[in-house]
Amino acid sequence: MGPIPLQRDIVQRPGIVIAGQGEGARPVARTSLPGIPQASAAARRFVRAALGDWTGSGLPTVGEFGERLTDDALTVASELVTNAVVHAGTTVELLLRLEDSAGPEPAALVLEITDHHPARSVRDGRAERPDPAEYGRGLQLVATLAESWGITYRTGLKTVWARLPGDDRYGIPDAPSDDGATRGHAPRAAGPLAPASGHAARDDAGWAGRGGLSFLAEASGLLAGQLDEDLVASTAGPLLVPRLADWCAIWLESEGGGPAAAPRLAGVWHSDEARTALLRPALEKDPLRLPGSVGTGPVPMPWPGSATAERGDGTGAALAHRIISGGRTLGAVLVGREGTDHIPDEVAVLLADFVRRVGLAVGAARAYTRQATISRILQRGLLPSKVAEIPGVTSALVYEPGDDGVVGGDFYDLFPCPGGRWCFVLGDVQGSGPEAAVVTGLARPWLRLLSREGFRVGEVLDRLNRLLLDDAMEAAEAAALMVAAAGGQQIQDGQQIQDGSQSRFLSLLYGDLVPLPDGRVRCTVASAGHPLPLLLRPDGSVRPAAEPQVLLGVVEDVAYGSQTFDLAPGDSLLCVTDGVTERRSGRLMFDDGDGLARVLADCAGLPAAGIAGRIKQAVHTFAERPPDDDLALLVIQVDEDRHTDVRGSSAGE
What we know:
The protein is built from 14 helices and 23 strands. By secondary structure, the chain is of the alpha+beta class. A hairpin with a 6-residue loop joins strand 1 (17-19) and strand 2. The radius of gyration is 30 Å and the shape is elongated. The two termini are 43 Å apart.
C-alpha cells in the first residue's frame, strides 16, 4: 500500500485550526484515517506534526508541555486508533484540542478518537476475550497515562477521549541523581526504540511502566507500516535484539500450505552479528511449531547450545510465543537471553504483547497480499488484452491502477464495429473493489454489444444508463452485502446498501471514429460526467471536444447527446480520467486553471506516444507523492501521411 493521506483542516497556518474567537480561542487539529492497520502509524505522524506546528506558532499553551506529554499523546493516539480499527473497522476521526489552564486546573491536551460502529463495544483490558492474541493494552494504557478519559456515544458515532495534563510532571525535566540516572521515573519514553548497547545495560524493571507502553506503541506503528510478511519479520527482529533479548528467531507458516508443511525461518538476529551465521543453521534443523494447546502465553524452550554462546558455557533461557491473528496460527517467535536461567516476568509480559502486534501485522500483510493478487487477476480480466489498430490513425494508451491493492474503477477499450467504424471508451466507476469490478465487468461488454448493434453514440449511452439503473444496481448491492458479511459488518439503517449501490454511478467518455477518403477522420463523442476530451491542432491550439452531461446511473429520464467533428491529419484527441485532472498537490489540482490544456498545448508536433508520455510525466511530477488514484489516458492522432483510400480496411469484421 502507498502512504496514507492525512486530511487536516487548515486555518491561518498548516495543521492549525483556531476554534472560537478572542481569548477563549483553542487550537484544534483533526484528521480522518481509513480503517486499516497503517492508521495507527499515520495517527502518530499526525499528532507529532500538529504539536510541532503549534509549538512553531508560538502558542503560549504549548509551552507548558514537555517531551513526555508528546510521547504520551503519541502512545494514546496510536493505541486508541488501533483499538478503533481492530474492533470497529470503520473510518476513524482523530481530533486534538489544547485547553488553556483555568484556575487551579493545568493546561491540557485532549485527544478524541471517533469510529462509526457504536454497536461495537470498546475493548477494556479487563474484559474476557476469546482470543487475547488480537488485543493490545487498549484502555488500560489510556487509564495509566491520562488524567481522565471516557466514552461518548452519539447516533452513528462512538468517541473515546483522553485528557493529558500539562503540569510539572511533563514540563520539568527529570533531575539526575548522583550516579547520573533519573529519579522517580521509568526509562524515558522519548527514545524507546533507540539503539541499545546489549543485555548488560538493560533495565528490565523499567519495561513494566511507561517505557514498555511507549515501546509497544512505537513498535505498533513500525510494524503496521509493512505490507509484506517478510518485512514485518525483518522489522520485528531488530526491535527485540538487543533491547529485550540477546537473540531471536521468527518462523512463519506457509499460507495455504496445510498442516504438513514445515514453517520457514523468516529471520534470525543476534546481538553479535558474527554469531548469527552459527545460530541460523542450528535453528533451521528443527523448525519451531508450537501446538495450539499451549495458548498464547510463553513456552520455555531448550537452549540451542554453543551456537549462541558469546562467552562462558553457552547457556541461557529461551521463550517461544505463537504468532496469532484471527484465531489462526501464523508462526512463532523464539527469543533467548544468555547467562541466565530465566527471563523476568515484566519482560515476558512485554514480549507477549509485542508478539500479538506482530500477529496483527502479519495478518494484515497477508490480507493485503491476497487482496492485491485478486485485484490483479480481476483487472486483467476486466480490461482488453489489446486495443484495435485503426488504418491511418495512431493511438497511445497509458493505464496505471492506483497503488492501493484493490481493483480500480477505471477501464478503457478501443474496438472495431460494422460499417467502417471504430469505437473508443474511457470510463470510471465511482468507487473501487468488488463493487466497482461488478459494474466494470458489465459495462464494457454491454458497450461492445450496443455499439455493434448499430446504435448511435447518444443512444448507446441512453441504453447503458437504463441498464445501470436496473441490473447493475442489484449486482452492486449484492456485492456490497457479501463484502460486509465477509468483514463481519452489520447493515444498519441501510447504510451499506446505499454505499454499495453508489458504485453503479459511471462517468464515461464514449465515441466512434469513421475514416474518410480525403484523409480526415469523422469523430462523434459524448461525455457523461467525465472529464471532457481535448482536441489539439498542429498549431498548438486546444479546445474541449464535447459538452458535459450527467453521470450514468443517476437519472432515469435523460436523453444523452453527442458532438460530431472532423479530425484533420495531424490533429490529436486526448481523453483522460479524473486520476489525471484531479491529481492533487496540497490544495491544488492538476487541471486547476486549465492545467491539462496548457500541458497539452506544449505537445504540438509530438506523436501520439510522445503526447501520452508528456502528459503522464506532468501528472507524476505535479506532486511529490505518487498518484493514489487510477490514471488512464488515451491519445488518438490522425496520421499526416495517411492514405486516402481506406476502402480495403477490415473495420467491419
